[in-house]
Automatic annotation (TrEMBL):
Catalytic reaction annotation: L-arginyl-[protein] + NAD(+) = N(omega)-(ADP-D-ribosyl)-L-arginyl-[protein] + nicotinamide + H(+)
Species in which this protein is naturally found: Naja naja (Indian cobra)
Originating gene: ART1
Gene Ontology CC annotations of this record: cell surface; membrane
Pfam families according to UniProt: ART
Lineage: superkingdom: Eukaryota
Record-listed E.C. numbers: 2.4.2.31
Single GO term (MF): nucleotidyltransferase activity
Keyword Disulfide bond (UniProt): yes
Keywords: Disulfide bond, Glycosyltransferase, NAD, NADP, Nucleotidyltransferase, Signal, Transferase
Name this protein carries in UniProt: NAD(P)(+)--arginine ADP-ribosyltransferase
Family: Belongs to the Arg-specific ADP-ribosyltransferase family.
Length: 288
């Protein structure tokens, strides 16, 4: 770890420009963490209408998407092999990496949209993008070799704290890098070493492929194996355990299940009941 601090010394001159806050890592229970297990086709059927509505509401989102779509047209022919992704999935990944405020605005909303079901349904205006980005990571992850990655994340202006053996999630889509040198450019107030098995290498779908970005989804659960509070930097080492979601298929459940109850068991890896939401009136339901 010592060499990281030496390498990071040029960043120290900028430290006073950014107020530093302390944030304790936890399970991020206010995050919207839907994995859309069992309702992918139903969500895909809603994409055109959702995107039209959300583009109209959010100009920053619309502009980022347009820029990414233009870049994708230029880049898709240069990929080394046919992709498992549909164009809209690739564009979502590229939009996330567009220079500017979009990914920050999006992640701020993701971290808070899970406070209540109503917060997601009525105040979260990234429903289409959240689905497409989640789906893109899933599709890339299916064929990824290796499945797990050792990555790094540098953070400026936030000192994250934790303790050994604590279970945590980031609760947002979290950028990391396979290169610790690249990670250092993003900050040294907190520095993560992360062993992720749900994060996906998105280098081929990034505006900045040199960053060697691995994107970690909100629902990946980690164990803290080491935490060191340093004078200049807090160091956190995380190891992946599993996926864990509070919510599942919230949007289609609201739209399709008002007249008949549907059973979605949150966080399960398989569809438990009511395939394609063809539910019987007496089927049990959950609140998430």
């Amino acid at each position: 770890i010592g060499h990281l601090l030496v390498s990071a010394s040029p960043l120290k001159v900028r430290r006073d420009l950014f107020p530093i806050k302390e944030v304790h890592l936890d399970m991020a229970l206010t995050s919207f963490d839907d994995q859309y297990k069992g309702c992918v086709e139903l969500m895909e059927a809603e994409m055109a209408e959702l995107n039209r509505t959300e583009f109209a509401i959010n100009r920053v989102y619309a502009d980022a998407w347009a820029e990414a779509a233009s870049m994708w047209k230029e880049k898709k022919a240069s990929l080394p092999e046919p992709s498992a992704l549909k164009p809209e999935h690739a564009i979502a990944l590229m939009a996330y990496t567009v220079q500017g405020r979009f990914h920050k605005d999006f992640n701020t909303a993701v971290r808070e949209a899970g406070r209540t079901r109503d917060d997601y349904l009525h105040r979260f205006h990234y429903k289409a993008f959240h689905f497409l980005l989640t789906r893109a990571l899933h599709l890339l992850g299916i064929t990824a070799q290796p499945r797990c990655h050792k990555v790094y994340r540098g953070v400026r202006s936030v000192r994250f704290t934790s303790e050994r053996a604590k279970l945590v999630r980031f609760g947002q889509f979290t950028s990391s890098s396979r290169s610790n040198e690249s990670a250092l450019h993003f900050g040294t107030d907190s520095f993560f070493t992360i062993e992720t098995c749900y994060g996906v290498n998105i280098k081929n779908y990034s505006f900045f492929p040199g960053e060697e970005e691995v994107l970690i989804p909100p629902f990946e659960k980690f164990k803290v194996v080491n935490f060191t509070r340093g004078q200049e930097t807090n160091f956190i080492h995380l190891v992946s355990l599993e996926d864990e979601s509070v919510y599942n298929c919230v949007f289609v459940k609201e739209k399709k299940c008002k007249m008949q109850k549907c059973f979605f068991k949150s966080g399960e890896r398989r569809w438990l009941s009511c395939p394609r939401l063809n539910c019987s009136p007496g089927a049990p339901t959950t609140t998430a």
